[in-house]
Amino acid sequence: MSISLRPAVVADCAALSDVVFRSKQSNGYDDAFMDACRAELTITARTLAQTQLWVAEDNGVLLGCAALDTQPNNRGEVSLFFVDPNVQGRGVGRMLWSTIFRLAHQSGFKTLELSADPNAVGFYAKQGFVEIGSTPSGSIKGRRLPKMQLTL
After folding, report:
1. What secondary structure, in 3-state letters, does 25-41 show?
2. Fewer CB within 10 Å: C terminus or N terminus of the chain?
3. How many domains does the chain have?
4. What is the pLDDT of residues 27-57, one digit of tens each?
5. Range of the domain at 67
6. How far apart are CA 1 and CA 84, in angstroms?
């Protein structure tokens, strides 16, 4: 594999949405759950206008994505961190994290925060994040997600 990273472009939206859905569903979620998340997880031109979304690709095939946004008080918010389930464990996530950390340091962020899928808490903990509370799901009323933070 020859993985490269670049900012996402509008032409990536459909393929990225497919990667995001397959990655999310690989956590064991059923079709009803996925349908409830569809609006929140669909990558659109508006998504790209509102966030710094990076993609990992291999010879034009999109393998994953991650976003980093500026928040008040020198904080960065990580979102849309997804890796195609067919290539998980092969360094794609590591490369995306490297880019996110580089951008966070360049931006002068003191902390990074994210809302984690409960199935991904262990992955984020390996990156140095700790749970600091919970936050409401953007898709499912009454569902709460672990809120995690990393001090840089």
Report:
1. HCCCCCHHHHHHHHHHH
2. N
3. 1
4. 999 999 999 999 999 999 999 999 999 999 9
5. 3-151
6. 14
